[in-house]
Amino acid sequence: MIVVNELSKVYDDHLAVAGVTFQLQQGQVCGLVGPNGAGKTSTLRCIAGLIGSSDGEIRVNDLSVTLNSAAVKRQIAYVPDDPPLFDDLTVGDHLEFIGQIYDIPDARTKASYWLNRFDLAGKYDAGATTLSRGMRQKLAVCCAYLADPKILLLDEPLTGLDPPAIRTLLDSVHEMAENGKTVILSSHLLAMISEVCTHLLVMKSGQAVYFGPKSGLVGDGVGAESLEAAFFAATESSPLEMVAT
């Protein structure tokens, strides 16, 4: 579903992403982790087609992101770490808007399901500017889920969420994968995302220092008992030592 080959992204004289290569299949959940400034958000934005890559190739469901931008975007939902909601719309307006632009059958029923699932039903008529940081995050996730994309790109989606909302989000990601969605989940909350990830992409200074199944980095016989321990081991090693075959 996602093929990234030698992706590079340069901003002026800064190399943010340097030759990153990986691929994900349908139903896989990839934890994208790395220190601040590692290139995680730039990688996600390039896959989503929101910014152009400087070099390399990205294909989504066998479509080139560069040559088929509109078709690719119809298959992707991207939730940034600080969702840019419409200040003059209510919670309900946001979901109605998504339902209309994606021409979603029975959109109100599906929107109601997600609002109830994320404990936002009571905020249906509330304006976006009245929402807390966590509520804004949950609304953005509800909008993404309502669009029913084949690929979900979630950039720090746990930021600002309380423990029940974190559990709801992680459970929903697992369900999405079981239903054939491909998910990339970026987060610094390593212990929390570890349970839902099938794969890991660890980045440092724009490079992929590890990509492969989670079992190749965390678990018996590989030297790391937790994702946190594996993260420190990977980011303290050279890229050639850590990239999975």
UniProtKB/TrEMBL annotation:
GO terms for molecular function: ATP binding; ATP hydrolysis activity. Residues 2-230 form the ABC transporter domain. Keywords: ATP-binding, Nucleotide-binding, Transport. The keyword Amino-acid biosynthesis does not apply. InterPro entries: AAA+_ATPase, ABC_transporter-like_ATP-bd, P-loop_NTPase. The keyword Cell inner membrane does not apply. SUPFAM superfamilies: P-loop containing nucleoside triphosphate hydrolases (SSF52540). Coiled coil: none annotated. PANTHER family: ABC TRANSPORTER, ABC TRANSPORTER, ATP-BINDING PROTEIN. Belongs to the ABC transporter superfamily. This is ABC-type transporter ATP-binding protein EcsA.
